[in-house]
Amino acid sequence: MAQNLTIVLVEKTGTLKTTSVKDYKEEDLFKKCGFKKADGFEKQTEWTTKIDGKRYIIALFAKKDGRANTENKYDFPPPVDNDLYFGSCALVARLAEGSDDAPAYVSLTLELWEKIYEKLFGGFENLDATCAEDEEEEDELESIPIEKKTKQGYLKDGFVVDSDDDDNDDDDDSSDSSDDSDDSDDDEDDSASQNGGDETPLELEDIGSELSSEEYDYDDDDKK
User: Fold this and answer.
1) What is the DSSP letter of 157?
2) pLDDT by residue (tens digit) across 124-148?
3) Where exactly are the structural domains of the chain?
4) What is the pTM of this model?
5) Alpha-carbon distance 173 to 159, whole Å?
């Protein structure tokens, strides 16, 4: 039996609005979405969910073929969240207790669809409630003794240290560098002492000149 009921229209821009249908007939639903012909306009999927003690079945009617730039921008719930539709779409509700021969159609309001939509997506996180929980959460560092925390309030765990500790490490590195420099100077002094201290090294040119100036006399007997 035909009846009057409210359905939800999903415009191609993604905007939702309700419209009243007099003497509802599924075969005439395409007209409510602004199509001149019913070609390709058909049921795409159904969602079943329980809200406020009632089990609803929501049917989606839409076209999967259309002209470019007429794609529907609304994010539909799974399993059609990745499907592409064109033009306006229609959402029609009925109760699960009805039969295929006598479906129990009910009016679908925007408020009811929002509840169903949220449930179909698994629920959305309430940011206000989450923020309140974070504020009430106990700070673990408050129970840590002061001597085990840095000046900034962080826990000393081997990775986080006081800035004073870093400065001490820098001083130690500087001291080590100075010690290395002193060791280098000591090595140079040892090398100098092994070479005779401040004495002037003996030059080979002087040795050669002395040898060249010596003269050897040969006796006559030796010449014979």
Assistant:
1) S
2) 544 454 455 556 555 566 667 776 6
3) 5-120, 134-177
4) 0.56
5) 19
